[in-house]
Amino acid sequence: MIAVTGASGQLGRLAIRELLKSIPASQLIAIVRNPAKVSCLAEAGISVRQADYSDETALSNALNGAERLLFISSSEVGQRSAQHRHVINAALSAGVKFIAYTSLLHADRSPLGLAAEHVETEAMLAESGIPYALLRNGWYVENYLASLGPALEHGVFIGCAGNGKIAAAPRADYAAAAASVMTQDNPAGNVWELAADEGWTLSQLAEEAARISGKPLVYRNLSEADYQAALLGAGLPEGLAAMLANSDSAAAQGGLYDDSHQLSQLLGRPTIPLPQSLSAALS
């Protein structure tokens, strides 16, 4: 039995879809906060179980009978460390034999502020005694695709990443890699640094989006403070605006780049290139 936490989220849903390509639905457990959101999974024969990252008892019950756990990190930045400890304790209580955790690219040396809670979680896993592997996911290309519409309207794509290369891949690629790891014979002990085969700057992203859309688009580099202020002005919550600005600034330092091609090695194919993602988003 393979369990997936956060199975109703954007990455979790894709991971379940990928696992179904090689695992019978009866061998999958989808752990979600609100089962009503994934009634289609239950209809497909998957065991849907309710549990919140903050409820260790519910997590332990939800993991009953699971041998492997795809532990997708919580989306609640600032609360992850405590929530992740609940998941690991619950896995210990339920007798889970293997955990694959979705961490952050080069978490142990990343300049991103997001790295701290991932590093803490990695340490918890090491202390737990449960065999585990780390899926250190790079940036999702969708983090930038959401800004394309407004950017094309104004002809300007803003950020503070400078000329930093960003090896972002679509969530679908990370989900497929996770499914590959979960179905390996002996995946424990591995640390995978996962990123797209090719990196690009935000200037290159703007150029490619302009080419595909036929509309003028240029990249304007701002200071981290000015970019955060612009995001706040666009209506983003303060915490999210700060996180995105910090991440862009870290990209300028190489924090979102990797050229080891470990993601495509797990996939057994090249990662989905930026032009393909842009074409899909713009269509």
UniProtKB/TrEMBL annotation:
CDD domains: TMR_SDR_a. It comes from Jejubacter calystegiae. Gene3D superfamilies: NAD(P)-binding Rossmann-like Domain, UDP-galactose 4-epimerase, domain 1. Residues 6-144 form the NAD(P)-binding domain. It comes from the Bacteria. This is SDR family oxidoreductase. Pfam families: NAD_binding_10. InterPro entries: NAD(P)-bd_dom (IPR016040), NAD(P)-bd_dom_sf (IPR036291), NmrA-type_oxidoreductase (IPR052718).
